[in-house]
């Protein structure tokens, strides 16, 4: 395997990118989007943010409801087919589609990822 991105300053990364653990509290289909995504509401403890997440290949809505996800919360808002996506739920390519990143054990919503 070859990594393709240039090395960055780890201190700078932790200053610039804020990732937090959230709990999915609502999942809706999103047929208006060009890609097959869900509309998610993710609870981060003190705040709930929306996300357009491409998790439809692997998960049914009931599989995601209550799940903990790792999300980038400081990218600003991106509008997807009229829907304001306020955080980026992280994932990796799996055999069947995108698999969301989560914690080994449940933690408090809003916990920062380092």
From TrEMBL:
Keywords of this entry: RNA-binding, tRNA-binding
UniProt KW RNA-binding keyword: yes
PROSITE patterns to which the protein is assigned, alphabetical: TRBD (PS50886)
Superkingdom of origin organism: Archaea
Transmembrane segments: none
Keyword Signal among UniProt keywords: no
Residues annotated as domain TRNA-binding: 13-114
Recorded GO MF terms: tRNA binding
Listed InterPro entries: NA-bd_OB-fold, tRNA-bd_dom, Tyrosine-tRNA_ligase_regulator
PANTHER family registered for this protein in UniProt: TRNA-AMINOACYLATION COFACTOR ARC1 FAMILY MEMBER, TRNA-BINDING DOMAIN-CONTAINING PROTEIN
Protein's name in the database: tRNA-binding protein
Source organism: Haloarcula limicola
């Amino acid at each position: 395997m070859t990594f393709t991105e240039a090395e960055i300053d780890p201190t700078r990364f932790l200053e610039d990118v804020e990732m937090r653990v959230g709990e999915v509290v609502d999942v809706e289909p999103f047929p208006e989007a060009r890609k097959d995504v869900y509309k998610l509401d993710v609870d981060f403890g003190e705040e709930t943010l929306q996300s357009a997440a491409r998790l439809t290949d692997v998960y049914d809505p009931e599989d995601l409801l209550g799940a903990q996800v790792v999300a980038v919360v400081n990218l600003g808002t991106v509008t997807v087919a009229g829907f304001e996506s306020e955080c980026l739920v992280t994932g990796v390519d799996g055999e069947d589609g995108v698999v969301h990143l989560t914690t080994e054990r449940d933690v408090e919503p809003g916990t920062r990822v380092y």
